[in-house]
Amino acid sequence: MKKHINMLEGSAIKTIIRFALPIMFSSLLQYNYALVDNIIVGRYVSTDALAAVGSVGAINSFIIGAALGLTSGFTIPVAHGFGAGDRKKVSRYAGNSISLAFTIGVFIVIVAHIISNPLLKLIGTPEEIIDLSSAYLNIVYFGVPFSMLSNNFTAISRAVGESKKPLYYFTISVLINFVLDMLFVKTLGWGVEGAAGATLISQISAAVLTGIYIIKFNKDVDIKAADLQLNRKISLEQIKLGIPVSLQFTITSVGSMCLQSAVNSFGASVIAGFTAAGRVENLTNLPMSALGVATQTFVGQNYGAGNYERIIKSVKRIFLLDLLVSIAMSIILYAAGPHVVSLFMTEESPEIMFAAKRYILAIAQCYSMVAVLFVMRNTLQGLGFTYANMIAGAGEFFGRLAIAFVLTPLLGFSAVCYAGPAAWLLADIPLVIIYLSKQRKFKGLIRQKNNI
Question: What is the DSSP letter of 188?
């Protein structure tokens, strides 16, 4: 009996939904690291502590997002190999990606500790929270190699059509995070350092559990000791695929840091409201993001198998599905968002709630644009055209930059709220153009195949 989902035959929409649901719940559990930290710190420490943890989001995306972006590129050949039925390629590329991810992760830890404090000052982190932000980051960054490993193991599992197992292991790691958060922050009073320590331990747990599954129990990936030895040619190929995805995170995060500097100028209450609303937005992003990740695997396997016609027809249907999901998420965000924001506070603050509600309204009005982004970006990534991620990242960067330095001084916090939609629009345009170009190429290949 096959344990993986067959991406090469049958209804594409049903297959992708089945595959995406565990991804969505896994992402929800991964996201809970930050969400639980924010809620517990906000309720049991202080508003300043919540602002401190929230204000590092852009820097975290810059460093950790760039690291995880690399692993997303590393496993693209695994999906291609699996679709083509080349099990030797699957094992060799999967094994190499594991060693490469950990090696680069250790290097990133060193760099992150050197640049984190200068970055906090660069984005204008308020004096009253900068020490708290620094203390949180200096602990969290030790988890980068383990986050890269667990992300890489999960990507390998998904590349061969298995999305359920990672969900089980992330469930365990999130429970560990919650228990340790309550122990370290509420009971022992260790503040933001306790929240960071709980996150670190849970990330190590996730890496160990997902690693054991991939290396010992996943029958579609037969990784031997020789496969774990770094191969120069394979490493260069994987890095070539990973760097554009990583740069997309990096470029986008620089724009987010510029935007964060604009938010920081409004004070700790607005930072806290912006942070809490952003966390809620990320929750409603999850269904669209999961469909995007599932699309990447689907497209990758079918590209490896040469099923170009199936790719073209299916992407159209996935696109329409994601648009419908985005409308539903807009309604949920607008209706329930403010109530979820209130969970971050022991007593409701009018300033915090005003900032949060204004941000939520702006995002809810424009959510369809992020659906386009997820489908197009992941489709092109599945095909191996990762340079499109970098181009889209540049679009997002210029969108946020324009808002932070041009419109915010003129329009105030209202401009900040529309930075996300501006970024999505400028990313969507090049992605759609690139995909339509690739689609024409595939149609030509289909005609050649039919003629033969």
Answer: S
